[in-house]
Amino acid sequence: MNKLFLIFLLINSISNIINISFEETKIPKDNSINKTSIYFIKCGNSDSILIESNGHFGLVDSSRAYKYIENEVEHVQINKTIGEKNHWSKDPDKSVQAVINYLNYLKVDKLDFILATHAHNDHIGGIPAIAYYFVNESTKYYYREYRKTKEDTTKISLANYKYYIAAVHSMQKKGAQLIDVTNQNFKFDFGELNLELLNTDIDPDELKYGENQNAIVTLIKFRHTKILLASDMISKDDKKLKDYVGKIDVLKLAHHGKSESSYDFLSVTKPKYTIVFNDNIPTYLNQIINYIKFSLNSKIYITEYISKSSESVENSAIKLNLNTEGVEYELINTGEELEPNSSVNGWLSWCDKKTYLESGITVKEWKYLEWTGGKDWFYFNQDGIMLTGWQELEWAGGKNIFYFDLNNGNMLTGWQQLEWIGGVNWFYFYPSSGYMAQNCCITIDGKNYCFDENGCLIE
Fold first, then answer.
1. How big is the chain by its Cα radius of gyration, in Å?
2. What is the average pLDDT score of the chain?
3. What region, left, alpha or beta, does residue 113 occupy, with left being phi > 0 and alpha being psi -120 to 50 degrees?
4. What's the CA gap between 96 and 100, in Å, rounded?
């Protein structure tokens, strides 16, 4: 009996441990601390996002390394661990120091969790410093195992693995709980919020892209509100996630506004507000900003447009307040709205799609435009994307079938031998209007031809 009793106790203890591991991220709701907010901290061309709910705090990324802290935490001396001073930030306003300053302003004494999205300095370089000040045995460290990419063969990114090791070792030294979410669709509750970690799978094309292909994406839900922190997700991955994520309210745009996000992803998610972590307005922002602004009608805010000095710590973050009185969510301290460059004109290619801008605005529907082959008709959908291939479109009060070149997008006319659902056949498109002849007989160059209901030439 004693042995059976001991076995029962052992099984019960193991069961309790398992239950704790599944519930470990839940924090008690304290009605006296009824505050849930997300802070997008201004830290240069880097990411750091603080999440607060019911008096608890979590951090997604940590900005880049600024300076080392003496030997209190192993590997925290970034200059010795990494050995590349050019990876430091010389400006504390654009580094982990800005994050530390903001956490101190909010009187954060401990972080309940830290999420390291991927092994780039501008996302995890500051983790050792954060660990030194804000981590203890109850902190959970979520990460994805390091996977080699094509960057590991280039000199510019040889430090990636070292940043990864420095972050992990600093968390271990402070006794944090390390949680590897590789290949898991990992979810946890954090006060009023539910967080889901996406893009954690091992990609079969792992060596094909850079470290950004490994970026963990965070989907946050609050009642009817959805926030997506896209880290540096590449377009290959956002196309896989777009339908699962669906429409969102607030988007932290991928990769500081670089053209990593696809038209497909943005046209499905259609964020009401878009936040960009950047410290300047480079030319690469033009095409994506114009699309988000004019095609999606999303308001865009950039961290550079808020507080200009580290002396104003209180105003050094864009704040998303949730559960405010009478309003489910609101953005405050956003600074000026980012306006697209109205001088941008002409064709823009982006993530295997094309668009055309006139005074910074994406054109829609029919447009007669110049291209390398001369001048032709093109058609752009309501998202401003140029259409190709077979299309059924409004024309002169009715719907007709058109065909646009698969590579250039120009409307084809006259005789065309094309693929369709039945194979390959000859089709005729009226030169004056471009729409397809179908279910009729017509005279072309003095000879009579007949076409079936699908537009195929009847031999």
1. 27
2. 83
3. beta
4. 6
